[in-house]
Amino acid sequence: MAENYKSKDIVVLQGLDAVRLRPGMYIGTTGVKGLHHLLWEIVDNSIDEIANGFGNKITITMHTDNSITVKDNGRGIPVDKHPTLKISGVQVVFTQLHAGGKFNNSNYAYSGGLHGVGASVTNALSEWLKVEVCKDGLKYFMEFKSVKKGKDKVSGGVPVAPLTCLGPTTETGTTVTFKPDKLIFKDAQFDRDTIAKRVRELAFLNKGITIELIDENQVEEMGDRVRVYNYTKGLKEFIAYLNEKNTVIYKEPIYIEAKSDLVDLCCAIQHVDLYSENVFSYVNNIPTPEGGMHETGLKSGLTRAFNEIARNMGLLKDKEQNLLGEDYREGMTVVLAIKMKNVQFEGQTKTKLGNPEARPEVENIVYEGLMNFANQTSSKQALTDIINKAKGAAKVRDAAKRAKEITRQKNSVDSYSLVGKLSSCTGRNPLLNEVFIVEGDSAGGSAKQARDRSFQAILPLRGKPLNVEKKRLSQILDNEEIRTMISAIGTGIGTDFNIEHLKYNKIIIMADADQDGAHIRAILLTFFYRYMRELINTGHVYVAIAPLYKISKKNFEKYVYDEEDYDKIVKEAGAGYSVTRFKGLGEMSADQLWETTMDPSKRVLVRVTIDDLADAEEMISTLMGDNIEARKKYITANANFNRVDLFESRSKKSHG
Ligand code: TTJ
């Protein structure tokens, strides 16, 4: 064999056979994802045509045999003979790897087909493919199919006949139908939701374009065969869609659109009342979840402009430092879509823009765009809200840094025993331990006597801890009580919060059932809500419910935790009962405190949850903020503080 090996035996993989042999090289996988890739290779061509101003509509039709049709009303693929290849333009596009106008940049300014291997790959991996072109008053047709060549060789995308003219037409455009080859894709099927998701995205990114998605597998009667995607406002509508489920802090998104020699840019920005940042970036309609140069430029542009605007508006004083980009991006949703030539994708998944020239270009366009936006009087309110939110973020960041330092200091010797007034427990298993935050020194004293010190720690709070909402963070951290609490809990606060460092499985607020107690609860919950929210979200914060009365007689003893239960329990007791009324935790004996409020087998705890972030936010700003009138109104309308108000309990009252 070896000696007979000649040049003619060297297999030169030509054209489409290379694709059949190693489909993974061209479309990644031969599973569902790769299957859909076939479709996007085709759709990209129509999008390019329309994005460059030719035509306005694409129709995608899913057929029952898993074949699929893509139709546009553009100019139609060229039908004339290619000068050197001597075949029609249509045949070139579907049989030559990397063929098509987009690779020489002469027909289109920018092209998306950079996933980007071209329609010939779709053809190579299809059982059959049919194309119809309407152009210059005539309709043309061509068909390709896979052909068995020898025992186990199949060639794909083989022309059945040259391009033929079918006769006159008044339409223009291209229609392609193909059926993915089962030999390659097995039973993988097109999925309407997958297609719809990408199609919707494409419609957002290319405003004005109409994309119709028809699924012939759906029964007509169900009324959901056809979905139409058309967004005349493009990214503005995209951002409204992304923020749909959240509360925006200003209604009209900030919108920047500009062209330069290097890039076309569209950008929409809108903040919600939450804390994470959501950046969605695209290059030539391709998502770039790994970011890259355009995103870096965007961020610098935003930070530079916002700081300058904050100073111009007097919201940042001369002596104050600039805020950080992350401060401005707290709660920010932003969509950035750029188009440019010769893009280089990098990163793990090749979804990171590598072109360094994109960075300063995007930065400047975004900066200029925002400065222009700031020049309009109608922008004042939104900008004020954004900058104030960013200042809030900066404070939390600052506080977190200080809290970290505090936690670090206290943790350096023994993380349990050295924390301020804390009486720690002896057990060292955070999963079993609980800490009671107790109002007042006398209740604190009783609690210390009453507790089971193997797992219960007591942290007495003297007087009212300060109102978190009204104080600046630096002042809050000057407060001994709060500092003690932060180090006792162990997690740190704000952006430094780390639940893994939590030292107590249950953090139990124990305060009286009166107005003062309610106020302390509200203050503590505000603190947790603002700076340790995850503690609430993960269900570690509880409120202990102390009884109001004890009803007793011979062989009968019951505690009343709620005024409403009083009559019922009295009735239960029958004649000759006596009533003990508890004025406050401080008046209970250690035994009573243990029995009623601390003993896991008898006590009533309410787990604090936030079912509605927006409501909780409102409650907190109303209760804790500066608007005294609103606060009074709120208190009158929601008088019963003991129910922890909007911090609703999910498992209402639970024992243990
Ligand atoms: C290229 O430049 C000359 C005029 O025609 C341009 C073109 O090719 N336009 C075009 C291609 N419109 N639509 C397509 C197309 C549509 C489908 C569905 C599939 C493919 C491979 C191309």
Residue-averaged pLDDT, rounded? 85
* Proportion of residues in β-strands: 15-25%
Based on Cα principal axes, name the global outline: elongated
Bound molecules: ligand TTJ
For the report, how would you describe the main beta sheet?
A: 9 strands, mixed
Radius of gyration: 34 Å
Percent of residues in helices: 25-40%
**Termini Cα gap:** 81 Å
Task: Determine the oligomeric state from the structure.
Answer: single chain
Low-confidence blocks of residues: 99-105, 411-419, 634-656
Fold and architecture overview:
There is one protein chain. This protein has 656 residues and is an alpha+beta fold. It contains 21 helices and 25 strands. Strands 1, 2, 3, 4, 5, 6, 7, 8 and 9 form a nine-stranded mixed sheet that branches. A six-stranded mixed sheet has the order 18-17-19-20-24-25, sandwiched between helices. A five-stranded mixed sheet has the order 10-11-14-12-13, sandwiched between helices. Helix 12 packs across helix 15, helix 13 crosses helix 19 and helix 20 (613-624) crosses helix 21 (628-637). Residues 99-105, 411-419 and 634-656 have low confidence and may be disordered. Residues 42, 45-46, 49, 70, 72, 74-75, 77-78, 93, 101, 107, 119, 174, 176 line the site of ligand TTJ.
Write the layout of secondary structure elements.
Blueprint (H helix, E strand, L loop, with lengths): L15 H6 L1 H5 L4 H20 L5 E6 L5 E5 L16 H7 L23 H6 L1 E10 L2 E11 L5 E6 L4 E5 L4 E8 L1 H4 L6 H14 L4 E6 L10 E5 L4 H8 L11 E6 L3 E9 L6 E6 L2 E2 L5 H20 L12 H4 L3 E9 L4 E2 L5 E2 L4 H17 L5 H32 L22 E6 L1 H10 L5 E6 L11 H6 L1 H10 L16 E5 L4 H17 L1 H5 L3 E5 L3 E5 L2 E5 L5 H8 L4 E4 L8 H9 L5 E5 L4 H12 L3 H10 L11 E7 L1
Parallel strand pairs: 1-8, 12-14, 17-18, 17-19, 19-20
Antiparallel strand pairs: 1-2, 2-7, 3-4, 3-7, 4-5, 4-6, 8-9, 10-11, 11-14, 12-13, 15-16, 20-24, 21-22, 21-23, 24-25
